[in-house]
Design a protein that fits this description.
binds adenosine-5'-triphosphate, binds magnesium ion, 25% strand, 313 residues, alpha/beta, 35% helix
């Protein structure tokens, strides 16, 4: 079974406006509430590919209930600890999308979790997770009282031989890579965090930075480069992947979708090139869509043949 974890879910309120300007009253044309939090997005993107999965998480109040219901509407197995016993509310993020497709985000920091809530979560996860399962850690864990929460989860379930996919940033990325996850998906900023210097955006520099991470023993390192595609280290070498040219509407969440496609291909026994092809096609389809989660599956399947992959080392 495949599981995602979202420690800091959100309601993403999308505000569509013609043009956003500072220091004036901006008129909103249309408002749309969607689900936020990277783990939930990976769960939804997997489900859109037809892949059953469980979403673990912690949420609060009315917004928390909405998050749970939105996940259930997709047919995802929802395993969220939901607390209603205080005034705490799962956060709302505001996404301002202009006609030009420029997007500005104002994000709340989210509910500060309590130690007891983390213990409840670990207990619940312990009842659901089976040996050999896939576990996806997405998003930073800065609202956790324990900054090493991902490491703690891995230590707790050490005996279950889980396959870990890690897509986070900052401190949680630096900490969790020490546990040798199966795969990480840094963008260039996140790769720079790991390498300890600003990695220049060219293939040779990126490959050098990836190689500098060899001591961590991570089998797959997929460095995503937005519209420039990705450079991916796998057990059988390095690949340069070029996405198809698409009519871009909103690239937020492309990384989550790339990860979902990668997990889907891996779980279904695809070879490396086919894994990269599906991951790149679904994330390009996400760039074409103007909402922050989801994509058109038939369009994604059509885009598969337009992905180019070179084995480079
Ligand atoms: N403009 C684009 N056109 C086609 N494909 C894209 C575009 N932007 C992103 N992608 C695809 O999505 C993948 C992941 O995107 P990106 O590198 O922006 O991830 P990210 O920075 O982690 O994003 P996020 O954290 O917001 O999800 C890229 O490797 C690429 O395959
Ligand atoms: Mg990302």
């Amino acid at each position: 079974m495949i599981h995602t974890l979202t420690l800091n879910p959100a309601i993403d309120r999308i505000l569509y406006l013609n043009h956003f300007e500072k220091n004036v009253t901006n008129r909103i044309r249309e408002t749309l509430d969607t689900i936020g939090g990277k783990g939930t997005h990976v769960s939804i993107n997997l489900k859109l590919l037809g892949q059953d999965n469980t979403a673990f998480g912690i949420c609060h109040g009315q917004n928390g209930l909405r998050v749970i219901n939105m996940l259930k509407e997709y047919g995802i197995h929802v395993q969220f600890q939901h607390y209603t016993d205080s005034s705490r509310e799962t956060r709302t993020n505001y996404l301002l999308i202009e006609d030009t497709t420029d997007c500005t985000i104002a994000a709340e920091s989210g509910v500060r979790l309590e130690e007891a809530e983390l213990s409840d979560l670990l207990e619940m996860m312990g009842q659901v997770i089976c040996p050999g399962d896939y576990l996806i850690f997405s998003g930073d864990a800065s609202n956790s009282p324990d900054p090493s929460i991902y490491n703690r989860i891995l230590h707790t379930f050490k005996d279950r031989d889980l396959r870990i996919f890690l897509d986070t940033s900052g401190k949680s990325l630096k900490e969790c890579i020490q546990e040798a996850p199966y795969m990480i998906k840094p963008n260039l900023d996140e790769l720079s965090t790991l390498a300890g210097y600003a990695v220049p955006n060219n293939d040779d520099s990126i490959i050098k930075a990836i190689r500098s991470l060899d001591p961590y023993g991570v089998e797959v390192i997929a460095v995503s480069l937005g519209g420039d595609g990705s450079i991916v280290k796998t057990a059988d070498g390095f690949y340069r992947v070029h996405p198809p040219k698409v009519d871009v509407h909103n690239t937020i969440g492309c990384g989550d979708c790339f990860l979902a496609g990668f997990v889907y291909g891996t779980a279904n026994g695809y070879g490396t090139e086919d894994i990269l092809r599906i991951a790149t096609a679904v994330s390009a389809a996400t760039a074409e869509s103007n909402i922050s989660v989801g994509y058109n599956l038939s369009r994604a399947l059509e885009l598969k043949s337009m992905v180019t992959i070179e084995k480079i080392k």
